[in-house]
Amino acid sequence: MKIATLLSYAGGFKEAVEEIVGLEKAGLDVVWVPEAYSFDAPTAMGYLAARTETVTIASGILPIYTRTPSVLAMTAAGLDYLSDGRAMLGLGASGPQVIEGFHGLPYTAPVAKTREVIEICRMVWRREKLQHMGDHFTIPLPQDKGTGLGKPLKIINHLVKEDIPIAIASLGPKSVETTAEIADAWLPAFYTPEAADAVWGESLKAGKKLRDPNRAVLDIFAGGAVGIGAGMEPHREKGRAGAALYIGGMGARSKNFYNDIFSKSGYAEEAKLVQDLYLSGKKDAAAAAIPDDYLAKSSLIGEEAFVTDRINALKESGVTTLNVSFIGSDPSERIHQCERLKNLVEKL
User: Which of 107, 123, 134, 321 could hold 2 in an S-S bridge, CB 3.0 to 4.6 Å?
Assistant: First the structure.
């Protein structure tokens, strides 16, 4: 199993990159660079390419609505060149509050648009003259639109590799099915190995039936916070506020993907309660309503034997890469936790 983490630049962007350099030496395999409505991801990814040597640098995630498919392809190709083949293009639909509220774009047809974006990206990377006639993207623009001067073009540069891995952050049944069919990697949310089959099993099976047999097995990223050692269990409490934010407030009452997943994972009553509390302004009460059972199952925090059992459960459920954050008050402590996790993984 590989180890991945999300770049967190709350304490300073350059400081976060320095920590990734240390984590890389400790055994980190993949770093995700977030993009919600903060700094853009590609700028940070280019900087990481210059400061690291071995880690895969992945956008985590670039919304499919905010850039043209060609720009997404060019961005990934440019990063892949700068990093000597270490790029991964992480794509997702984000949600209507961000896409419509921050970008001013309509949140429509996320699954169909994702499929077309991937088709176009792979065409660009193969250096084919770009011609795509889809329901959502038409390239070149038809002659009865614009100036009429558009013509099929191919990317100028010769790429490091023509098949840059594509990861999709998907949650709903149809989007997960599409991910299993066409993507190289999958980033689920609120993943617990005990509930994974009940929540996503049918969608994954349906997608895999349609998958190109020449593509590698889908890389599944899941894990949680890592704190290995005696007396670490209280650190599970740190997951409450974040879980409450997503389950309770990341979306409208009628459309919250994270709440749906949490409900399907065996916490239907708790999902409704957390959302009711959060949307009524009782954020602390919402956090307190997150079940202890979920906090344990969704983390890698505890004695070495407990963490080993959780890693094995994740592996048996199909997870191929541990997607984690590291507990620690400073970089050295977090790097130490990465080393401990790497040692456990190597013993499997």
Answer: 321
Please name which of 54, 5, 52 lies closest in space to residue 31, comparing C-alpha atoms.
5
| Judgement on whether residues 193 and 263 belong to the same structural domain of the protein | no
Nearest to 293 by CA among 261, 270, 322, 321: 270
Of 298, 323, 338, which closes a domain?
298
Domain boundary among 298, 321, 336: 298
**Looking at the structure, do residues 135 and 273 belong to the same domain, yes or no?**
no
State the pairing for strand pair 300-302/219-228.
parallel
In terms of C-beta density within 10 A (0-12 exposed, 13-18 middle, 19 or more buried), how is residue 330 classed? exposed
Q: How far is CA 218 from CA 45, 48, 181, 193, in A?
A: 23, 25, 9, 16
Residues 62 and 124 in one domain: yes
In terms of residue numbers, what domain contains 206?
Answer: 2-232+303-347
CATH number, domain containing residue 341: 3.20.20.30
Measure the CA–CA gap between 322 and 29, rounded to whole angstroms: 10
Determine whether 313 is exposed, middle or buried from the number of CB atoms within 10 Å of its CB (0-12, 13-18, 19+): middle
Domain tally, the chain: 2
71 lies in the same domain as 182: yes
Q: SS3 sequence, 2-19?
A: EEEEECCCCCCHHHHHHH
Q: Within this chain, do residues 20 and 104 fall inside the same structural domain, yes or no?
A: yes
pLDDT tens digits, the chain, 348 residues: what are they?
999 999 988 888 899 999 999 999 999 999 999 998 889 999 999 999 999 999 999 999 999 999 999 999 999 999 999 999 999 999 999 888 899 999 999 999 999 999 999 999 999 999 999 999 999 999 999 989 999 999 999 999 999 999 999 999 998 899 999 999 999 999 999 999 999 999 999 999 999 999 999 999 999 999 999 999 999 999 999 999 999 999 999 877 887 889 999 999 999 999 999 999 999 999 999 999 999 999 999 999 999 999 999 999 999 999 999 999 999 999 999 999 999 999 999 998
